[in-house]
Design goal:
The strands form 4 sheets. Strands 4-6-7 form a 3-stranded antiparallel beta sheet. It has a two-stranded parallel sheet with strand order 1-2. Strands 3-5 form a two-stranded antiparallel sheet. The longest helix is centred in the last third of the chain and has 33 residues, at 423-455. It has helices spanning 14-23, 31-48, 74-85, 95-109, 118-129, 148-156, 173-179, 191-196, 200-230, 240-244, 249-261, 281-284, 286-307, 332-361, 385-401, 423-455, 462-474, 484-496, 499-508; strands at 4-7, 26-29, 89-92, 132-134, 137-139, 163-166, 169-172, 316-317, 323-324. It has 2 domains: 4-198, Fumarase/aspartase (N-terminal domain) (Fumarase C, Chain B, domain 1); 206-508, Fumarase/aspartase (Central domain) (Fumarase C, Chain A, domain 2, Up-down Bundle), CATH 1.20.200.10. By secondary structure, it is mostly helical. It contains 19 helices and 9 strands.
C-alpha cells in the first residue's frame, strides 16, 4: 500500500512533489489543517446570514460584485458560477498535470483562509487518491482572477458534470463519483469562488515544467560532453579555477558535471598537440550557457515553491471574522517565472543545435577521421543532414514561443478585471518549448553517439562511454540512410526516461 502524505498548506517543494508523484503517495489533510478549514467555514456560515454584503459569500461576482443574492439562491449561484466559467477550449490538459492541479488546490485550501467546508476538501482528496483527473482544457485562462476556466472544469467533476480520466480511459463524471460511492457535490456559499479563484493551473504547469527541465539539464551536460569528445575538443575551458573566478553556482555545477563525465578519457589527451587553439563557443562556453539556465531554474523554483504554499483565493476569510478582498489570484509572479523558464530552456536547445551543426562538418585530425554528415558514403546517402534540419526548425519555433506572454493584457469582466497576467499562456507554451528542447537534445545525443563510433577504439570518459553504451542498446550505428524519424523517437525516449543519465551516473555518481 502506498504511503500517505499529510498536506498542511506548507512545506511543498519541487523535489517533494516529484517524490509524491513517483511514489504514488496518497494524500490526507494534516490535523491542524482540518481544524483551520473547519474554523474558516464556521466564519462563512455566520456571516452569510447577516445584514452585511460579503463578496463571494452573498453577492454576485466580477462586474456583479455589488449585487446581493438571496439566501435561497446561494447554492444555485455557486453552481451557475462553475457552469458559466467552464469555457475552456483547445486540447485537453495531460491528466498528470490535472493531478498536480488537484494536489495544489488541496494544499491551498489546507491553509484555512478560503471558507470551504471540510467535505469539499474530502471530495478533492478522494478524486486524487483514486487517480481521477477531470477533463480540463488548455486554453481560456487569462491568468488573473485565478485560472477561472480550467479550474471550473476541474470542479465540474465534483458536481457530476463533464468527464473524468480514470485508468487511461475517459468516463462520465457521474460514473467516477459512483465508483467512489459519492453523490454529486452541492456547493455552498463561497465554495465555487474558492475553487476557481487560484493559480493552480499555472502552478501545476510550472511544477511539471521544472521537473522536466531539471532532468534536461543533466542530459544537456551529458550530450555536450559526448560532442566535445567526438569533436576532439579541449577540456581546458572546464577548469574549476575558471568558474570559481566568476562564482555563478550554475556555471560551476555544469563545469563539474562535464569534468566528471570526461574522467579517464583517452580521446582528449590524444590530441593535446594538434595545434587547435580554441573551440567554438558552443563547446567552450557550455558552463556559461548551461549554467545560466541552471540559475534561471533555481530562481523560478523559488517563486513556484512560494506560490504552491500560498493562498491564491479571494476574498480571504480570516479567523477573527474579517473577510478581505484582494488580488492574490493574480498570476504575475508565475507569469514572469514561466516566461523566464521558456527563454532559458530555449537556449539549451539553441546551443545544442550549434554543437550538432559542428558534428556534421567532420574533421581530419589524427588517424581517426570524422566524416562529414557523420556517414562514410555520403552522396548516395544524406547522412545526418536532415536530423539537423529538424533540430533547426524546433530551435526557430522556440524563439517564437520564448516571446513573453506576461507583457500582454486584455481587459475583461466589463473592465473590473482590467489588467491580467496571461500566465496561463506562458504556462502552456513553456511545455512546448520543453518538448522541443527534449527533441533537439535527443538529436544531438544520437548524432554524438554516431560520431563517437568513428573515434573508437579510443575511449571517451567513463561517464560518456556508459551513456554511449546505453544509446547503442536501443539504437544501432547508422551505416547508411534509414528512417531517422524512428531513431529520433528512440533517442527522445532515452532522454525522457532518464536512461542515458542513469547510465552515466553509474560511473560518475549523481550529477548536479
Amino acid at each position: 500500500m502506498s504511503a500517505t502524505h499529510l498536506l498542511s498548506g506548507e512545506g511543498l517543494t519541487i523535489g517533494l512533489l516529484r517524490q509524491l508523484l513517483t511514489d504514488q503517495s496518497r494524500l490526507a489533510l494534516a490535523p491542524a489543517a482540518q481544524e483551520r478549514v473547519a474554523a474558516s467555514r464556521a466564519v462563512v456560515d455566520r456571516l452569510q446570514a447577516g445584514e452585511k454584503s460579503y463578496y463571494g459569500i452573498n453577492t454576485g461576482f466580477g462586474a456583479l460584485a455589488h449585487t446581493r443574492i438571496a439566501a435561497a439562491d446561494i447554492e444555485k449561484l455557486q453552481e451557475n458560477l462553475i457552469l458559466s466559467h467552464a469555457v475552456g477550449v483547445g486540447r485537453e490538459v495531460d491528466p498528470d498535470i490535472v493531478r498536480l492541479m488537484l494536489l495544489l488546490k488541496i494544499n491551498a485550501l489546507a491553509l484555512g483562509l478560503s471558507g470551504v467546508r471540510p467535505v469539499l476538501v474530502e471530495y478533492l482528496l478522494r478524486f486524487y487518491n483514486a487517480g481521477l483527473s477531470p477533463v480540463v482544457f488548455a486554453k481560456g485562462s487569462l491568468g488573473a482572477s485565478g485560472d477561472l476556466a480550467p479550474l471550473a472544469h476541474l470542479t465540474l467533476g465534483l458536481l457530476g458534470l463533464g468527464e473524468v480520466w480514470q485508468a487511461g480511459r475517459k468516463i462520465p463524471a457521474t460514473d467516477a463519483l459512483a465508483s467512489l460511492g459519492l453523490a454529486p457535490l452541492r456547493l455552498k456559499s463561497k465554495e465555487g469562488l474558492a475553487l476557481i479563484n487560484g493559480t493552480q493551473f499555472m502552478a501545476a504547469h510550472a511544477v511539471h515544467g521544472l521537473l522536466r527541465i531539471r532532468d534536461l539539464l543533466k542530459v544537456a551536460d551529458l550530450t555536450a560532453a559526448m560532442t566535445l569528445e567526438a569533436m576532439r575538443g579541449s577540456a581546458t575551458p572546464f577548469d574549476e579555477r575558471i568558474h570559481a573566478a566568476r562564482q555563478h553556482p550554475g556555471q560551476q555545477e555544469t563545469a563539474d558535471n562535464v569534468r566528471r563525465l570526461l574522467v579517464d578519457s583517452q580521446i582528449l589527451p590524444s590530441h593535446l598537440n594538434c595545434g587547435k587553439v580554441q573551440d567554438p563557443y558552443s563547446l567552450r562556453c557550455v558552463p556559461q550557457v548551461h549554467g545560466a539556465v541552471r540559475d534561471a531554474v533555481r530562481h523560478a523554483a523559488t517563486t513556484v515553491e512560494t506560490e504552491i504554499n500560498a493562498v491564491t483565493d479571494n476574498p480571504l476569510v480570516f479567523p477573527n471574522g474579517d473577510v478581505v478582498s484582494g488580488g492574490n489570484f493574480h498570476g504575475e509572479p508565475l507569469a514572469f517565472a514561466l516566461d523566464y523558464l521558456a527563454i532559458a530552456t530555449a537556449e539549451l536547445a539553441s546551443i545544442s543545435e550549434r554543437r550538432l551543426y559542428l558534428l556534421l562538418g567532420g574533421d581530419t585530425m589524427g588517424e581517426k577521421k570524422l566524416p562529414k554528415l557523420l556517414m562514410s558514403d555520403t552522396g548516395l546517402n544524406s547522412g545526418f543532414m536532415l536530423p539537423q534540419y529538424a533540430a533547426a526548425a524546433l530551435v526557430s519555433e522556440n524563439k517564437i514561443l520564448a516571446h513573453p506572454a506576461s507583457v500582454d493584457s486584455i481587459p475583461s469582466s466589463l473592465g473590473q478585471e482590467d489588467h491580467v497576467s496571461m500566465g496561463a499562456i506562458a504556462a502552456t507554451k513553456l511545455l512546448e518549448v520543453v518538448a522541443n528542447t527534449e527533441t533537439v537534445l535527443a538529436i544531438e545525443l544520437m548524432s554524438a553517439a554516431q560520431a563517437l563510433d568513428f573515434i573508437h577504439p579510443l575511449k571517451a570518459g567513463g561517464g560518456v562511454e556508459a551513456a554511449h553504451a546505453a544509446v547503442r542498446q536501443r539504437l544501432a550505428f547508422a551505416e547508411a540512410d534509414r528512417l531517422f524519424h524512428n531513431d529520433i523517437q528512440t533517442a527522445l525516449g532515452l532522454v525522457r526516461d532518464g536512461t542515458v543519465v542513469a547510465a552515466a551516473e553509474q560511473v560518475t555518481g549523481e550529477l548536479h
